[in-house]
Amino acid sequence: MPDRFNDHAANERTFLAWVRTAVAVVGFGLAAGRLGTQPPPVRSEFTLLVMGAVIILLAYLRMRIQRDRIEGLTKVDDRARPVDWLLTGLVLSLFALVGFFTLHLA
To answer: Along the 106 residues of the chain, how does pLDDT read in single tens digits?
Structure first.
């Protein structure tokens, strides 16, 4: 078993949680768009998909940074990094986009 396996496993679980969050928000937004009487604008669906992809990409980068920190290759700093704030902001933006998308259809 690799050294610090539990830390690496927790890092991967966190990454997968970000992926699940992005997929759920995008899926919910696309499903909500299909509930209306009019078809949703293509740009709205494209925006949801792009934002979901950006969240997954940033989550991957965060996981790689954490992997280096676990291995001791970089200095440990407990403060939130810009990537963490950006991921949180993107998730909140996705929720807002889904809300506006749903209100637009109503």
So the answer is: 667 889 899 999 999 999 998 898 888 878 877 777 787 788 878 888 888 898 899 899 989 988 888 888 666 666 667 777 877 887 888 788 778 777 776 6
pTM (global) more than 0.90: no
**Three-state DSSP state, 42:** helix
* Angle CA 30–96–20, to nearest 5: 55
User: Given the structure tokens 């676990």, which residue do they identify?
Assistant: 70
The letter for the amino acid at 34 is: R
Take residue 13 and report the two structure tokens written for it: 């679980």
Instruction: Please report, as a single letter, which amino acid is at residue 32.
Output: A
Other beta carbons within 10 angstroms of residue 13's beta carbon come to 9
- How crowded is residue 89: how many other Cβ atoms within 10 Å of its Cβ? 10
Rg from Cα positions in the chain: 17
